[in-house]
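Students often ask why we bother encoding 3D structure as a string. The short answer is that it lets us treat folding as translation between two languages. Here is a chain of 82 residues written in the first language.
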Amino acid sequence: MTLLHSMRARRGQALRVLLAGSFAGLVAAVFFSTLQRGLWEDGYFVQRFAAQFWRHGTFAWNASDGPVYGMTCATLIFVSLE
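And here it is in the second language, the structure alphabet:
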């Protein structure tokens, strides 16, 4: 391996580490800036619909209310089923 190739490989690795660190910092900044407002409200909504479907077989906030059209993306329900 030549010296030039070795320098390029190290520079590429340093760039990948810098990009990964920047992305992690951005995700952390978004997470902490929205922590008090509740970033996860939509996730809870999907989880609640999925749990009702799993337990009672109906897409509803409460099983006793009957089925409702409340999801914007039905695929999320099946993804959130555990």
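Translate back mentally: The chain has three helices and no strands. Keep this in mind for the problem set.
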